[in-house]
Amino acid sequence: MTEQQHLQTLSDIKRIMERSSRFLSLSGLSGVFAGASALAGAGTALVLFRAYYDRWEVRGHYDDGDFSLLRLQLIILGFVVMFLAAAGGLYFTWRRAKKNNLPVYDATSRKVLINGMIPMAAGGAFIVGLMYNGLDVLIAPSCLVFYGMAVLNASKYTVSDTKYLGIAEIALGILNVFFLRRGLYFWAVGFGVMHIFYGIVMWWKYERNTAEE
Description:
Elements: H1 3-21, H2 28-59, H3 64-99, H4 107-132, H5 139-154, H6 162-177, H7 183-212
Transmembrane segments: 23-52, 72-92, 112-132, 138-155, 185-204
Keywords: Membrane, Transmembrane, Transmembrane helix
């Protein structure tokens, strides 16, 4: 066996081991789609906020019922954005896995899901507690921090570059604590701009060559 054949064999072994230990079907387009969904959601939320404050100015005083309506609208909007982002992520991941003849759901993808869901579930419970105690101003930074922890925790079982997105989200959430009541803008940057940037980088680094084939 020639030296070139030895190197090819080692490369094949490394690729097989990597595929068995890491979930490599995540698509950069999932990040782009999630980011676009988040920006659309942030734009819609800004419209809702402006309409709320316009009504407040017309009334000339705060109205608890109107605030409750705004909160409900924002909660519904948040779930819609999450659903769209998740649906887009699943679609692009499935498409890439199919193209590369890789399974979408296996032992490795379950590890990604479990390790990501633990911080997400903890964050969800924590945010419900904030809402219960009327601490809405802390919801935005908490979302960013717990989401970043989820991404960072799951990155152990997917491409290592994902950890940088998680770290950036955590840092942005902590920064948001020092600029409270600016959460919508931090959300737009964290869930929107950062996801689009991350998705483009991942597509360029891991998918561009296969897309051109």
